[in-house]
Design brief:
about 10% strand; 60s Ribosomal Protein L30, Chain: A; about 240 residues; alpha+beta; four-stranded mixed beta sheet; 2 domains; 9 helices; single chain
């Protein structure tokens, strides 16, 4: 309503669309239990905060759950978040959607990041199928870096992706607010957005070993040789 009023005249436009005006409104809203609107600098950010609060206020929050144990299909209990995300993307044309993908702490180290990557890709595919532009979506594949440190239960809710929203490139207001457990991961261990699978320090040793064993089998090495510890030592010296 305020945005429409601001279009009524140039004077109202200058007043209502000023950043200071939006800041005052967001401060007022934050005082009446709308913390998600704190420090918004535009009316659209305020509207996005309200929309995200409504979408992510249920029992499953901003989580997309997958079957525990490596499952890649979004469970039906959270598919409403995919549809809601697509609706927000159509409503807010400058919307940026970020997907943080996780596995449970019990995931084998050799496949944790690749599973998270496939889960992130599945979410991207689902959103694109619902009409979201691929360029609006970024992903980070955490593997079990976060789940091995958080205090969340180790059950099927640990196998998940978390969805976040912001307008444009602005980092100040990401909705919903990111949980503190992300800060438990040391800076040097945090993956970057859209990080290629090959750069995962968590998986490279296992991938190298698998490839080395396959090559030795092709060359006809006896099974007893392949089972010896020296195989890993050969692998490391070969990579060096």
């Amino acid at each position: 309503m305020l945005a429409r009023l601001g279009l009524a005249s140039s004077t109202l436009y200058q007043q209502i669309f000023e950043e200071s005006f939006a800041l005052r409104r967001s401060t007022e809203l934050a005082k009446v239990s709308h913390e998600w609107n704190a420090s918004c600098t535009s009316l659209e950010e305020i509207a996005l905060g309200r929309d995200c609060n409504e979408l992510c206020s249920g029992a499953t929050l901003n989580h997309l759950y997958f079957p525990y144990g490596g499952g890649l299909e979004v469970r039906s209990i959270t598919r409403h978040l995919l549809k809601g995300t697509a609706h927000l993307a159509s409503k807010h044309r400058q919307l940026c959607i970020h997907i943080d993908a996780h596995t449970g702490a019990g995931a084998p180290a050799g496949i944790a990041t690749s599973t998270a990557k496939r889960r992130a890709q599945q979410v991207v595919n689902d959103l694109v199928a619902l009409g979201v532009e691929r360029e609006q979506i970024t992903t980070t594949c955490w593997g079990k870096r976060v789940s091995s440190l958080w205090s969340e239960p180790e059950d099927d809710t640990a196998a998940r992706a978390e969805v976040f929203f912001k307008l444009g490139s602005k980092e100040s207001n990401e909705f919903p607010k990111r949980k503190d457990y992300y800060q438990l991961v040391p800076e040097a261990r945090r993956p970057t957005a859209d990080q290629p699978l090959e750069s995962s320090d968590e998986e490279l040793p296992q991938l190298r070993r698998t490839r080395m064993l396959a090559m030795l089998r092709i060359l006809g090495f006896p099974s007893d040789v392949l089972n010896r510890r020296e195989v890993g030592q050969v692998e490391e010296s070969d990579e060096d």
